Write a sequence for this structure.
């Protein structure tokens, strides 16, 4: 019951506080307490279903940023086996905001690459809050070429507020590194699966977002910029972020309707942070299904499908 609640989840929090009070009540019998708790638990499910059935895009942003939401490392240990991390871009250094390596899933060997934000303060600093620098994207590009050389599918996990905007990143060619990855992924002769698991922000997400099958977790987001950045640009007021989120249609349902993604991966009731194991099972099932489906295509057909997808954006 020691959960963190978002502002719009206050009705759920109130019911769970009632359960805590009942559990510590000394003037009721065990049977009475158990009966009351059962009723309240049903009420929690009904209330959560009602709230999450009509989330606004801005509320989806809040869920995607939830401090307890599973990150790349959480899925890595639950979805894949025999992960062997590969480090460095062979030019400058090893960016821990983007992590990648070889792994197994089902009967498939894959190269898996993902953003990692970190959980504790130390981890967040180590992973730069999930905001990669140029060497991170160059490392990802190197691993993608490695996958192509050995004819291994690529699986990416997107969860970033955006590429790191610092001066040192710009000095080392941030925009070039992102653009280079877009070119690499557009022509790569191996299947590419993309999974948006949290925030999909700006070029920081797009740099590992070109693929043959693009899936989004139900309450994740994917957009050209963060709502706050968009609000600052359009209205010169970051507090207009909820309106910006609505205008950008950055939630999974809107993006599926626009044809920008292929699949919405259903999350546990109340979001992936409520049941990380169930969320991981859903992602694993999606990846295996997509790998099986893409294996039916010849490489030329796969490249043609990828090209047609890119050319269809914006129509």
């Amino acid at each position: 019951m020691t959960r963190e609640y978002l502002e719009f989840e206050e009705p759920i929090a109130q019911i769970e506080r009632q359960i805590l009070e009942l559990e510590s009540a000394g003037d009721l019998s065990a049977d009475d307490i158990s009966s009351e708790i059962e009723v309240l638990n049903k009420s929690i499910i009904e209330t959560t279903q009602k709230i999450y059935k009509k989330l606004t895009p801005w509320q989806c942003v809040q869920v995607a940023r939830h401090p307890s939401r599973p990150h790349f490392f959480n899925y890595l240990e639950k979805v894949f086996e025999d992960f062997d991390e590969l480090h460095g871009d062979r030019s400058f250094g090893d960016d821990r905001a983007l992590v990648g390596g070889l792994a197994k899933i089902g009967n498939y060997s894959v190269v898996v690459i993902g953003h990692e934000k970190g959980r504790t303060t130390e981890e967040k600093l180590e992973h730069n809050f999930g905001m990669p620098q140029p060497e991170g994207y160059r490392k990802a590009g190197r691993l993608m070429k490695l996958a192509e050389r050995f004819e291994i599918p690529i699986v990416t996990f997107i969860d970033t507020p955006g590429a790191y905007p610092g001066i040192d990143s710009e000095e080392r060619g941030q925009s070039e590194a992102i653009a280079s990855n877009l070119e690499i992924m557009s022509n790569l002769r191996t299947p590419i699966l993309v999974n948006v698991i949290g925030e999909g922000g700006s070029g920081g997400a797009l740099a590992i977002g070109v693929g043959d099958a693009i899936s989004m977790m139900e309450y994740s987001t994917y957009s050209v910029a963060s709502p706050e950045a968009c609000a600052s640009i359009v209205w010169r007021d970051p507090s207009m972020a909820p309106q910006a989120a609505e205008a950008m249609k950055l939630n999974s349902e809107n993006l599926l309707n626009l044809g920008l993604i292929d699949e919405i991966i259903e999350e546990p009731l109340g979001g992936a942070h409520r049941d990380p194991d169930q969320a991981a099972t859903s992602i694993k099932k999606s990846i295996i299904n997509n790998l099986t489906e893409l294996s039916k295509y010849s490489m030329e057909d796969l490249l043609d499908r990828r090209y047609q997808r890119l050319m269809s954006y914006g129509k």
About this structure: DSSP finds 14 helices and eight strands in the chain. The chain has a mean pLDDT of 93. The two ends are 47 Å apart (CA to CA). The chain has two domains: 7-54, 67-312.
